[in-house]
């Protein structure tokens, strides 16, 4: 699962936002007691004939429920909303361990994940009640849809001042649309409130403690939950960890060096297959091809089938496809770059099926709700600089060292214009959380350095290092038995490894 989840990874089905009046009052000194003690109504997950996710959950034997939570936890007697969850009950009831809440990152929906994760977890899977929860503002949990013309908030600053001004205007328009359509709920969307929702879910499920399995953004959510509710977690897996210190609207800036390195690794792979892709016979020649593509997009948008791809978006396509070093993923990127090279040379260029799907996602508003909800969380967590000149200066400072990804990482986004400021300070995290961390040395989303920071901040944790260029290897099902078996042994026994481990690549 990628930190920025696009079409193939975002599978949550949108339902209308549900804002209601408060629950009936209860005689409980705890103002949240009536939420924790609510009785859940379990029902089929399918919402309609086109609901593929619901149908898949139903086929797997899962059930769904809506959990009522306060819209504003500072006013629990006020408006409420519902958070959607799915539960795939333990089939090995004799050896049941407990409930595990799952989050696959993004931020994105997670309702769909329990059947998939049961397979990933091997023999440990049937021993848990697996719960997927759509975080507030996403999927079926009061989804925010601002009517954006694209599904993503991410754009590079481009190669010129004019391109930067274009990206700033785009970001300002996204924020304006959200202010107009969802301004009344934006102040209440944040990871801290999602963590509070998780704890209501825990209580409503009747569990004193829950286990947690999070990847990418899901590791940040897990750390926030642990900091806010330190005694309510059992077994915890953090798969590709985002440290709490660098999370926020400018999180991509920290990913730039890793993406530059992994782009070079991919270029070496493509050079060995020059007879197939024609991108260059050496690593340097392939990278030169990428630079020519980018330079051409600075001069004029590239015509790729029905799409037009300018210098603010070419780096996004590369960035989206560097999270997995398996041959299939690398081949898909090489085929896409070959198409872009044809377009850069002024020749007719039709996208491959993978590129067509990606561009349809990135450049149209068909999945506007994905980026809208994701931005609502990120902008609600950490304040961004409001002056566009701050971003322009940072772009200029990093352009020479990182010409492809520097303008992307330092670019401006909608949080610079967001109508709601964070209601609370960011969560620092840290403490005695006995978590199992899975980290890949060539991760382009949650960098290896970020994982090391989390490991240091959680002195009770253990870390498994995988020598590979991959993001979220455990939840992705990356082919490495060393990682898979050690994580699943921990989930089955509750015993962390005696020390940190290193898993070599396979094959």
TrEMBL record:
Keyword tags: Hydrolase, Signal
Q: What is this protein called?
A: Alpha/beta hydrolase
Q: Does the keyword Chloroplast apply?
A: no
Output the InterPro entries linked to this UniProt entry: AB_hydrolase_1, AB_hydrolase_fold, Pept_S33_TAP-like_C, Serine_prot/Carboxylest_S33
Pinpoint the Peptidase S33 tripeptidyl aminopeptidase-like C-terminal domain residues.
414-503
Q: Per its record, what are the GO molecular function terms?
A: hydrolase activity
Q: Which Gene3D superfamilies match?
A: alpha/beta hydrolase
Q: Which family does it belong to?
A: Belongs to the peptidase S33 family.
Q: Pfam families, from UniProt?
A: Abhydrolase_1, Abhydrolase_4
Signal sequence, start to end: 1-27
Q: Which organism is it from?
A: Actinomadura chokoriensis
Tell me where in this chain the AB hydrolase-1 domain is found.
Answer: 99-266
């Amino acid at each position: 699962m990628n930190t920025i989840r696009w079409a193939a990874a975002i599978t949550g089905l949108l339902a209308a936002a549900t804002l209601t009046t408060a629950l009936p009052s209860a005689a409980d000194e705890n103002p949240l007691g009536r939420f924790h003690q609510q009785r859940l109504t379990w029902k089929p997950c399918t919402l309609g004939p086109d609901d593929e996710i619901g149908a898949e959950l139903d086929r797997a034997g899962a059930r769904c429920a809506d959990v009522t939570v306060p819209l504003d936890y500072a006013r629990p007697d006020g408006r409420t909303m519902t958070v959607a969850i799915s539960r795939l009950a333990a089939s090995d009831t004799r050896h049941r361990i407990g409930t595990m809440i799952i989050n696959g990152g993004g931020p994105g929906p997670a309702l769909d994940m329990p059947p998939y994760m049961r397979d990933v977890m091997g023999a440990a899977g049937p021993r848990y009640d697996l719960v997927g929860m759509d975080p507030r503002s996403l999927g079926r949990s009061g989804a925010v849809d601002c009517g954006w013309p694209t599904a993503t908030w991410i754009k590079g600053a481009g190669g010129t001042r004019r391109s930067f001004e274009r990206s700033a205007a785009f970001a300002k328009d996204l924020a304006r649309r959200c202010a107009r359509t969802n301004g009344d709920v934006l102040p209440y969307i944040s990871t801290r409130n999602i963590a509070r929702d998780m704890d209501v879910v825990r209580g409503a499920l009747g569990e004193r403690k829950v286990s947690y399995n999070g990847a990418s953004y899901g590791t940040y959510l897990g750390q926030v939950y642990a900091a806010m509710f330190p005694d309510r977690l059992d077994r915890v897996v953090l798969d590709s960890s985002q440290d709490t210190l660098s999370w926020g609207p400018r999180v991509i800036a920290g990913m730039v060096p890793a993406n530059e390195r992994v782009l070079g690794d991919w270029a070496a792979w493509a050079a060995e297959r020059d007879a197939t892709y024609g991108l260059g016979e050496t690593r340097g020649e392939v990278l030169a091809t990428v630079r020519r593509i980018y330079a051409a997009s600075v001069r004029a948008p590239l015509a790729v089938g029905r799409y037009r791809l300018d210098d603010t978006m070419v780096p996004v396509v590369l960035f989206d496809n560097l999270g997995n070093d398996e041959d299939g993923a690398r081949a898909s990127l090489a085929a896409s770059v070959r198409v872009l090279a044809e377009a850069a040379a002024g020749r007719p260029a039709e996208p491959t099926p993978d590129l067509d799907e990606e561009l349809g996602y990135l450049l149209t508003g068909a999945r506007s709700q994905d980026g809208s909800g994701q931005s609502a969380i990120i902008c609600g967590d950490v304040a961004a600089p409001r002056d566009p000149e701050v971003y322009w200066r940072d772009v200029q400072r990093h352009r020479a060292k990182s010409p492809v990804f520097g303008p992307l990482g330092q670019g401006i986004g909608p949080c610079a214009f967001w109508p709601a400021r964070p209601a609370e300070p960011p969560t620092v995290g840290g403490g005695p959380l006995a978590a199992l961390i899975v980290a890949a040395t060539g991760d382009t989303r949650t960098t290896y350095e970020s994982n090391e920071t989390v490991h240091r901040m959680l002195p009770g944790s253990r870390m498994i290092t995988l020598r590979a260029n991959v993001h979220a290897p455990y939840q992705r099902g990356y082919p490495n038995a060393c990682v898979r078996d050690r994580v699943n042994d921990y989930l089955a026994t509750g015993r962390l490894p005696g020390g940190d481990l290193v898993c070599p690549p396979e094959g």
